[in-house]
Amino acid sequence: MRVLLVEDEEVLAKTIRQALHADGFAVDLAFCGTEGLWAARQTRYDVVVLDIMLPGLNGYEVCRQLRASGVWTPVLMLTAKDGEFDEADAFDLGADDYLTKPFSFVVLVARLRALIRRGAPERPAVLTAGDLSLDP
Questions:
Q1: Residue 15 domain boundaries
Q2: Which residue from 2, 19, 42, 87 has the least number of CB within 10 angstroms?
C-alpha cells in the first residue's frame, strides 16, 4: 500500500511515516503543496494524506488541481483546521475523508485502509455530440 504524505511539519511527517511503515505502508513524503502536487501527478499512489496549511500551494488547491487534472486517488485531509466550513470546503474540492489533529493513529490507519479498499473511482468519460458536451 503506497501512501503520499504531504505535511510541512517534518518531525510529524517522519513520525507518521515511521508508524505507517511499521504497519506495512510504503510512504513518500512531500513538505510543501507544490512538491506534493507534482508527486501525486507523477506516481501512482493508493492514497494521499494531505495537510491544508502548506507552504506553496495549500492543501485545498492541491486537491482541486489533482481532481481537475483527472487524478482520482483517494485523498484524506489531515489538518489542524477543525471548523465545519473547512471540512465542507475540503469535501467540495474533492477530498474523500477528513481527520483533525491531534488524531488517533489507530483511526488514521483504519481510515487509510477503508479508502484503499474503496480505491480510486472510475470517472465516466465526457460525452460529446457536436458542440454539446456532457460530463455526467
A1: 2-134
A2: 42
In the chain (136 residues long), the average pLDDT of successive 10-residue segments reads 96 96 96 97 96 96 95 95 93 95 95 86 65 73
* Tens-place pLDDT, residues 22-51: 999 999 999 999 999 999 999 999 999 999
Tell me the CATH number at 122.
3.40.50.2300
**SS3 state of residue 6:** strand
Which contiguous run of DSSP H or E holds residue 110?
A: helix 105-118
Distance CA 132, CA 119 (A): 31
Instruction: List own/partner pairs for 123-132 with CB under 8 A and 24 or more apart.
Output: 123/70, 123/72
